[in-house]
TrEMBL record, chain A:
<dbReference type="InterPro" id="IPR004353">
    <property type="entry name" value="Mon1"/>
</dbReference>
<feature type="domain" description="FUZ/MON1/HPS1 third Longin">
    <location>
        <begin position="415"/>
        <end position="516"/>
    </location>
</feature>
<feature type="region of interest" description="Disordered">
    <location>
        <begin position="34"/>
        <end position="105"/>
    </location>
</feature>
<dbReference type="Pfam" id="PF19036">
    <property type="entry name" value="Fuz_longin_1"/>
</dbReference>
<feature type="domain" description="FUZ/MON1/HPS1 second Longin">
    <location>
        <begin position="285"/>
        <end position="384"/>
    </location>
</feature>
<comment type="similarity">
    <text>Belongs to the MON1/SAND family.</text>
</comment>
<dbReference type="GO" id="GO:0032510">
    <property type="term" value="P:endosome to lysosome transport via multivesicular body sorting pathway"/>
</dbReference>
<dbReference type="InterPro" id="IPR043971">
    <property type="entry name" value="FUZ/MON1/HPS1_longin_2"/>
</dbReference>
<feature type="compositionally biased region" description="Acidic residues">
    <location>
        <begin position="61"/>
        <end position="70"/>
    </location>
</feature>
TrEMBL record, chain B:
<dbReference type="GO" id="GO:0005525">
    <property type="term" value="F:GTP binding"/>
</dbReference>
<dbReference type="InterPro" id="IPR041819">
    <property type="entry name" value="Rab4"/>
</dbReference>
<keyword id="KW-0449">Lipoprotein</keyword>
<keyword id="KW-0472">Membrane</keyword>
<dbReference type="GO" id="GO:0003924">
    <property type="term" value="F:GTPase activity"/>
</dbReference>
<keyword id="KW-0547">Nucleotide-binding</keyword>
<dbReference type="InterPro" id="IPR050209">
    <property type="entry name" value="Rab_GTPases_membrane_traffic"/>
</dbReference>
<comment type="similarity">
    <text>Belongs to the small GTPase superfamily. Rab family.</text>
</comment>
<keyword id="KW-0488">Methylation</keyword>
Length: 527, 217
């Protein structure tokens, strides 16, 4: 049973938010799939490693892969170009274009049945309908679904229309067409369309991050629409799967924000200063970003004056680190494309963990592909400085300390959880999970409710977002509060009164303000 | 922490994805098998000082990604390499078939004089072997390579592969086949060698100036 929109008044002004005039919506809980969820969302909840189907031998003519390339290539963009040039030389025999399949209703129903085994599927295919990636199962099992999705998208595109999403029973099916790729998400866990879109967006960015957009476009241009992209994506299944899981389990992705590790602000500043002074001491130019991350949280960041690091790009970086435990104990030098920064070329990242005892990872991103040794020196100098100033101990302690806001400190028994996003800095802070959100199912259910709440607040067409939404429910009462400066989503006991909830949130906001410089990165150093 | 050394050599490890390049590097540096590997993204870097014919030689090793999408990026790191371990997996014919291309790359992009050791890795998996020892050693002969079979798992012949490569380079140096003082050969003098050179009364300016002084590790 679900009772939709019980009371609906105009959105309150910021001054009169105490007047009970916000939308009141009763909501029945939807079931969510199982899995484990860490306190701070950082552990994969499901095994969605996915598959990039095997490439048949004979498809690739290895002997021509290593065609000579122009050695003078020096701009980062040329990585992408030469990759494609090498491809063009190969020209293996293209499989004949597949005849346009007609899909019977029966076949379609079978394929949709397949989806029920898993809560969620993400599909990536080329515009020609060639399967590229799926989170579960093999391409063979799902070929009729790929064909169906392709048919649906082609049908609407041919009519100069776009297909965003549709419902099939309890399935929500969502599409994104970003030439030359088509992405689709199928979910039965009641995720909202915007949540699914955020997931597809992250998967798309993830693909761009390993190829660059330029190379992606060129490869289809030069090799034809039937080119099998799986060849170039081999080995990225894990990071695509992890991206899907992160988008599901971490509200930061959907809210386009970044989670920050709580830390004493002077300690945090010392880290940024140490990076900047090491860079200067080593006379390194062309460094664009220096970032320290730990378990999907940002510790600090320094940047070239004219560039900012977009949260979506930072999620790519976080994902890269999370998916490659083998960065530990070695120094790596990795090409990475950050699509929001520049989707036409690679940045080069010097990646290393700070020390054996400190779980934080330092990334130095530059446009100079020959800067490895210079950045290796920067890293050495940086660690020397940290060790001398004892900052390394402070950093390690912060990494091992609380990674979320502890609501126990406020002492409100009926305020159970919250997620707060600073809209100016796109940084996010959330409460540590506490009862009744014990099991990973319960936690995921809460995150899914937040996602629907976010939708309800924002998807209002020209009316602009609601300011306050109070939503009593059987399991919990939700309260959303949105201003130009922040967005806050919170969960209370179902018995909470609106007045009381609002005043508690008010106190919470004050507490967050007071601790702002510990919970957030308030300033970034530049060079 | 200061290690003094006579020579600094840049090494590459190249070959198809999954042949065990990163495992070989780890075994060489840490002396143990690393079983948590994921595919290398770009390159991984390691260094170690070894003794070769009475000299301290520091190896700077670039372990490259074998996956196709990294091909063009990793090639840009070849320049200035003095030696390379060209790795295939004895249980994968595919990785063996790709050798010639890797070799062509190394010789054309690094230096025609690059010392290449052919390494047939995973020799512990005798039952799954697809490439006979004799076949690979014929290939090595035809292409002027030294051949060795190794196991990053058991550690067998791992250090030997790196040392063989370093030895070959030092031999070429002594025989005058290659000249460390010419740029682009991937060989630099270390502190110790420079001191010796000075003591010998040779000029340290001029031609040596393009051999950067690398005093610490
Ligand atoms: N049995 C056996 N397995 C090995 C040996 N060396 C590596 N492996 C395994 O082979 C797989 C690939 O090893 P890696 O070292 O990651 O391969 P790589 O050549 O670095 O691959 P890329 O980084 O993708 O180019 C891993 O699962 C290793 O455990 C070996 O000597 N014997
Ligand atoms: Mg590797």
């Amino acid at each position: 049973m679900s009772v939709d929109v019980v009371v609906k008044n105009d959105a309150p002004n910021e001054e009169d938010w105490l007047i009970p005039s916000a939308d009141v919506v009763e909501e029945t809980a939807l079931s969510a799939p199982g899995g484990q969820l860490a306190d701070c969302f950082d552990s994969p909840r499901k095994n969605t490693t996915g598959t990039i189907a095997r490439i048949e031998k004979g498809d690739v003519d290895d002997s021509s892969l290593c065609e000579q390339e122009d050695q003078s290539a020096s701009s980062s963009n040329e990585d992408a170009v030469s990759e494609v040039d090498a491809d063009r030389v190969i020209s293996p025999i293209e499989p004949p274009p597949q005849p346009q399949r007609s899909i019977s209703t029966e076949e379609t129903t079978d394929a949709l049945e397949l989806l029920k085994e898993h809560g969620k599927h993400v599909f990536v295919m080329s515009e020609a309908g060639k399967p590229i990636y799926t989170t579960h199962g093999s391409e063979e099992d799902l070929s009729s679904l790929f064909a169906l999705i392709h048919a649906l998208v082609s049908f609407t595109t041919a009519r100069n229309d776009t297909l965003d999403s549709f419902q099939y029973g309890r399935l929500t099916i969502c599409f994104t067409h970003r030439g030359p790729l088509i992405l689709a998400a199928v979910s039965r866990v009641g995720e909202s369309q915007s949540q699914l879109n955020a997931q597809l967006d992250l998967v798309h960015s993830q693909i761009l991050s390993v190829l660059t957009r330029t190379a992606l476009l060129r490869v289809f241009e030069q090799r034809g629409h039937n080119f099998d992209l799986r060849r170039l994506l081999q080995g990225t299944e894990k990071s695509l799967g992890t991206a899907v899981v992160a988008a599901e389990t971490d509200p930061a992705v959907g809210l386009n924000a970044v989670r920050v590790l709580p830390m004493v602000s002077s300690d945090r500043d010392a880290l940024g200063q140490a990076i900047v002074s090491s860079v200067n001491a080593c006379k390194v130019k062309n460094l664009v970003f220096g970032v320290i991350v730990v378990r999907r949280q940002l510790v600090t960041m320094v940047r070239m004056k004219k560039y900012a690091l977009h949260p979506a790009d930072l999620h790519i970086v976080l994902n890269l680190v999370a998916c490659n435990p083998s960065f530990k104990n070695v120094e790596s030098w990795s090409p990475i494309c950050l699509p929001r920064f520049d989707d036409s070329g690679f940045l080069h990242a010097h990646i290393s963990y700070i020390s054996d005892n400190c779980p934080a990872c330092l990334l130095l991103l530059t446009v100079d592909r020959h800067a490895f040794y210079a950045l290796s020196e920067v890293k050495k100098k940086f660690v020397e400085k940290l060790t001398k100033s004892k900052s390394i101990a402070a950093l390690t302690a912060a990494c091992n300390g609380t990674r979320c806001f502890d609501l126990d400190e406020l002492g409100y028994a009926d305020l159970w959880h919250f997620v707060y996003k600073n809209r100016t800095s796109s940084q996010l802070c959330s409460a540590m999970f506490r009862p009744p959100f014990i099991s990973s199912d319960e936690r995921q259910r809460l995150i899914d409710s937040y996602a629907r709440l976010v939708d309800r607040v924002h998807d209002r067409g020209d009316d602009g977002p609601l300011k306050i939404l109070f939503q009593p429910g059987e399991r919990q009462t939700l309260l959303a509060w949105v201003t130009p400066n922040f967005e806050l989503y919170s969960a209370f006991s179902p018995f909470v009164q609106k007045q009381s909830a609002v005043s508690k949130i008010d106190r919470l906001l004050k507490a967050l303000k007071k601790e702002e410089d510990r919970l957030f990165l308030v300033s970034t150093q530049t060079f | 922490m200061n290690e003094s050394y006579n020579y600094l050599l840049k090494f590459l490890i190249i070959g198809n994805a999954g042949t065990g390049k990163s495992c070989l590097l780890h075994q060489f540096i840490e002396g143990e098998f690393r079983n948590d590997t994921t595919h290398t993204i770009g390159v991984e870097f390691g260094s170690k000082v070894v003794q070769v014919s009475g000299k301290n030689v520091k190896l700077q090793i670039w372990d490259t990604a074998g996956q196709e999408r990294f091909r063009s990026v990793t090639r840009s790191y070849y320049r200035g390499a003095a030696g390379a371990l060209l790795v295939f997996d004895v249980t994968s014919r595919e990785s063996y078939n790709a050798l010639l291309q890797w070799l062509t790359d190394a010789r054309s992009l690094a230096s025609p004089h690059i010392a290449v050791i052919l390494v047939g890795n995973k020799k512990d998996l005798e039952n799954d072997r697809q490439v006979p020892f004799l076949e690979a050693s014929r290939f090595a002969q035809e292409n002027d390579l030294t051949f060795i079979e190794s196991s990053a798992l058991t550690g067998e012949n791992v250090e030997e592969a790196f040392l063989k490569c370093a030895r070959t380079i030092l031999c070429k140096l002594e025989s005058g086949e290659i000249d460390a003082e010419r740029a682009g050969q991937g060989i630099q003098f270390g502190d110790a060698q420079l001191r010796r050179v000075r003591a010998d009364g040779r000029k340290t300016g001029g031609p040596l100036s393009n051999c950067a002084v690398c005093n610490t590790s």
